[in-house]
Amino acid sequence: MAPLATTEVARLLGRFREYLESRRLPITRPRLRVAGQLLAADAHLSVEELQQRLDSAGEPVSPATIYRTLELLEASGLAQSHDFGQGYRRYEPSPASEHHHLICDRCGCVTEFTHERLDRLLPLIADEHGYQARRHRLEIYGTCRGCRRAGLG
Ligand SMILES: [Zn+2]
Ligand SMILES: [Zn+2]
User: Fold this and answer.
1) In this predicted model, what pLDDT tens digit does every residue of 17-29 receive, in sequence order?
2) What ligand is nearest to the CA atom of residue 149?
3) Which of 39, 101, 110, 126 pairs as cysteine with 44 (C-beta 3.0–4.6 A)?
C-alpha cells in the first residue's frame, strides 16, 4: 500500500487534534506520535509493529498509550482496524476509496486490491438473496508471491 503524502498526513493529524479538542481529551505528544506513525504508514500495522517503528524513530510510546490512541483514531473515523485471523488486529488510515485485502497465511503480509466489476457484482448477489447491500468486505487468504518463490507454498 502506498503511504499518504506528507501534506495529507499533516491534514489528518490536524483533524485528529480537532477531534481530541472537541471531546476535551488531552492532546499529548505520544498520542500525536502514534497517530503520525500510523497515518504515514506504508503497511497495515499491528500494535507490535507500530511500537517497533516508534522505538526506531527514537519516540518510544507505551503499549497502553498506543492502544488508547488507536481506539481514538478509529472512533474519529481516521483509522480502520482489521481482524485477519492472525490473533491480533492490524490498522490502517481510513482509505479514501474502498479496497479489499489479500492475506498471506505464511508471512502474514497484506496486499490491497480494488476491482470495480466485482464491486458492482456483489450487490447483485445480495439482491438475489433479498438483501439490500450496504457495504461489503472481501478478504482472500493464501500464499503470497514471495513465499511461493521461496518454495513455501
Ligand atoms: Zn507470504
Ligand atoms: Zn487496506
Assistant:
1) 999 999 999 999 9
2) 1
3) 110
Q: Are strands 89-93 and 79-83 parallel, antiparallel or unpaired?
A: antiparallel
Secondary structure (3-state) at 142:
strand
Strands 139-142 and 100-104: parallel
Rg value, the chain, Cα: 18
Q: Which three cell numbers stand for residue 3?
A: 503511504
**Cβ–Cβ < 8 Å for 80, 92:** yes
Cα–Cα distance, 107 to 117 (Å, whole number): 29
What is the number of the ligand closest to the CA of 1? 2
Instruction: Tell me how far the alpha carbon of residue 24 lies from the centroid of ligand 2, in angstroms.
Output: 30
Q: What is the pTM of this model?
A: 0.87
The chain-wide mean pLDDT, for the chain, equals 94
